[in-house]
Amino acid sequence: MIIVTAGHVDHGKTALLQALTGTNADRLPEEKKRGMTIDLGYAYLPIGDRVLGFIDVPGHEKFLSNMLAGLGGVDYAMLMVAADEGIKPQTVEHLTLLHLLQFKQILIVITKADRVDSKLIEQLLQKIRKQFPFLAQNPAFITSAYSGQGIDELKQYLLKLENLSDQNKPFRYAIDRVFTLKGAGLVVTGTVFSGEVSVGDELYLSCAQQKVRVKSIHAQNQNSSKGVAGQRVALNLATELGKDEIKRGDWLSSLEIMPFSDRITIKLKPNQVLNDSQAVHIYYAANHTIGKFTRLINGENDLVELVMDKPLLMASGDKLILRNADDQQTLAGATVLEINSPKRHKRTPERLSYLQSLLQCTNSIERIKFYLKNQTLEVAHLQWIEQLTSSQLRQLQQQQHLFLYRDQVFSLNYQQQQQQALLQHLAQFHEQHQDQLGVSKARLWRMSALQQPKILIFHFIDQLVAQQQMLQANGWLHLPEHQISFTSQEQQLWQAVEVEFTKTTQPIWVRDMAKILSLDEQEMRCFMYKAGKMGLLIPIVKDRFFRQQDIQRFAQWLKVYLRQYQQISVNEIRDQLGFGRKLSVQLVEYFDRSGFLRRKGNFHLLRDEDAF
């Protein structure tokens, strides 16, 4: 478990940690020389089977980004106030940051108690509690690293603290230092935000399209077989990447890395009166960038858009600190409500209603139920934004009656909505086109659910067909009550027409079929177009028909060819199928019109392989 120490420069933070643990948290020669902690110093207190870790974050305002790097993934803090100096500007600054980052508990620790009398210490405590009402009920300890006063009492209290870190979540680790060790190779250090890692684990690295393997772990100042949430950990990585390719602010995760976000929605916890829109410095874990926030509703802090110059890797519930344009004042803390927020239509009533409903969700389960009420999500996306392991997702699937299909997760309510819409749109099509049998899967998807994943809508259609709520004939979908059929006389004519198609590999013109069967051309035209509406024939141009199964055969051949070669020309179709150039042009243009292919210059590429 990690505990943050914060406070004004030279208020005895490092000395107190040395008294508690026997470790001097000042690592750098410059720190020892100057007497202040510049980068993240850390010390450890092994007691029985537990190890308490302390991050001594810098007090000097110049090193704020280093301080904030120490706050990620930590729940407890000790605010150090020197008895002989009292509350200083950096005391206020650090306490503000801890409060805005919503630490679970902040302990008041008065240091250097040997330098003043007890009456002045009591007055200082009263002043702290009065000036900062949110500390009114928080524990306070009077200590002196020099005399040892209060050290044991503080140590015993710290040992009783409950570990609140999220060890059951996926492993997520913020890198704040990168270096190489002779004989070991690449080493990164950082704080474990959540989960656990073991030697031999493979992890995703946010800055590279490759995994890295954990060779060894140094946790809580000792070699270990694993590191867990709330610990300060060094990882020795097996990777071909060099030290300069991994940087402070990168992440390691057991989950596949999702796209970075440069536009998010946040809930503000302001430290002062803010404009409805203003430029800010953004601090998040070991990252620092600039950007601009804009309230989505003027005067309200709950729904705020934050646009960042540098995209960052975030998840729901993560905490940020916002400072003013010259980086001199802390303006607000912020909680991530949504990543990858839309650029447009962000203030529509529907959008604001969605965000306000999301805001009312108090935990991960409530958010997941809300997400999936009216939409589907990619499994990997849901796991990332809510930081869920695969086993946790399976458990949620059983408890919340969720469904998985391929890479999509959805609720029964969403499935019922989509299937009802499919049936309604098909009924509308029948009403408007009573002379046609139905539509293809691809067309019904475009009519009913174009914004939804095609693979999932096709799955819902297959379910409706299996349940006989829809029927499928010759590739056409229709409702059971909607039928187009031949009369007995037309059925006999169809048998004769089909015989003529079996005699050739070419399409047949209406006029030619009329001559062959000695029928009136207009009568034959009406018949062949009726066969087309029934899905038996397909006109590639006006009055020139292939059988439906011939078109399907050509489409399947094109799929195989284009998967291998990516593109095809008219001349290649002519040579492969043995058609003349004119017919080859007609056939490929039919496939372009149907959405199966698309033209690019003199070539044709696969556009939608599910169209046939």
TrEMBL record:
UniProt keyword Nuclease, yes or no: no
UniProt GO MF annotations: GTP binding; GTPase activity; RNA binding; translation elongation factor activity
Organism this protein belongs to: Gallibacterium genomosp. 2
GO biological process: selenocysteine incorporation
PANTHER family reported for this sequence: ELONGATION FACTOR TU, MITOCHONDRIAL (PTHR43721:SF22), ELONGATION FACTOR TU-RELATED (PTHR43721)
Protein name: Selenocysteine-specific elongation factor
Localization: Cytoplasm
Pfam family, one: GTP_EFTU_D2
The keyword Protein biosynthesis is annotated on this UniProt entry: yes
